[in-house]
Amino acid sequence: MLTTIKVLHNKHILLGVTGGIAAYKAAMVCSQLVQAGALVDVVMTEAAQKFVAPLTFQALAHRPVYSDMFAIPPGQNIPHIALADAADLLVIAPATAHTLAKLANGLADDLLSAIALATPAPLLLAPAMETDMWRHPATQANMEKLRAWGASVVGPAEGRLASGAMGQGRMVEPEEIIGAVRVALGRRGDLAGWRVVVTAGGTREAIDPVRFIGNHSSGKMGYAVAIAARDRGAAVTLITTAALPDPFGVEVIHLDSAEQMLAAVLEATRQADLLVMAAAVADFRPKSVAEQKIKKKGDSEGVTLELGRNPDILAEVAAQKMAGYGPQHTVGFAAETEDLLANARGKLERKKLDLIVANDVSANDAGFAVDTNRVTLLFKDGQSEALPLLSKVEVAEIILDHVKR
Ligand code: CTP
């Protein structure tokens, strides 16, 4: 179940549904948009109604469904003009080859194509068709035209098609369409033009080919920051050890160890405006990694691992900044189990941060693996702000608000 999503809240989204089997998945797109707080007006072509009944969308959107260009409700404006003017975004999912051809040629022979021509809102297309139709030069030329005119396109994906064949042409899953909607709506957000780098998850330090030393960090806080920054228009690189789904429209770098993370962070932040280090980086790693799996010796003999120090990534970033390149702003996290504020203030100073997010990880409703966090923000000018228990998504928004300010 989704909760309200800031970038979607009270946004007018026109969902155009055309005649393909993927029309049933458009119902899920509609439902998720509504649950996230958007106002969804659905416009169906005649062919779409052969696959799904308008009533399905009406029940999900709690608003009338439109399909007839000439049905003007009493006292209202012509629907294609009224809907076109109100829209923040026009999403067509699924978009058939036929609809794409009409859009690429400016045809307006039904309500949806007329709206597409009349609306100043950005256009997002989720094509769906058989592979040969997608690959046809006519469709490819139409797509090229539509992209050149500024349309965003999500998919099509590879997979099983309506015919039963496997190939490219499947509409992407609703979650991916929601991601693309958020990117399209966020394009003019307050972080447009920013390059943001976020780290997430706990590093894994290899002991042998099958074992590692890790920690309880789930990556949720870092992913929340990356997604919030993307929704506000930033170009985001997420450097992560976590196995969470890759957020749409974010460059994601998967890795394991602190050393790998250091190299990736230094590379990604050379031109960045902001680095948010939400990752829980191991301070120590096994001095040597066994080439083969370590075997037990005898019945009761233990094993001693010798650990060496890992680099401090934020300290290295600070050194890079001193040398004249590196992120404009740096935010760190302090995971503590005692003396929260004093320890966090020390880290803020040592690591030359603009802001540190102090986090008592011994509380069971905050910190690792849960969706909520209770943090205190400490700023480099000595100020601080204690936040109540909030979702990690809300904490992410507040961090970005402060950085932006
Ligand atoms: N951090 C880092 N490199 C490390 C360790 C931590 O860049 N080798 C970053 C974390 O991503 C976090 C901040 O530094 O943003 C503080 O991490 P934390 O683990 O709380 O602090 P440590 O520096 O490890 O200090 P201590 O072990 O004394 O708690």
Write up what this structure looks like.
34% of the residues lie in helices and 24% in strands. It is α/β, with parallel strands linked by helices. It folds into 2 domains: 12-186, Flavin prenyltransferase-like (Rossmann fold, 3-Layer(aba) Sandwich); 195-404, Rossmann fold. It has an 8-stranded mixed beta sheet, sandwiched between helices. The chain has a 6-stranded parallel beta sheet with strand order 3-2-1-4-5-6, with helices on both faces. A two-stranded antiparallel ribbon has the order 7-8. Helix 1 (23-35) packs across helix 9 (174-186), helix 5 (97-104) packs across helix 8 (137-148) and helix 11 runs parallel beside helix 12 (313-322). Bound molecules: cytidine-5'-triphosphate (CTP). Residues 258, 277, 279, 281, 283, 310, 312-314, 332-335, 347, 351 line the site of cytidine-5'-triphosphate.
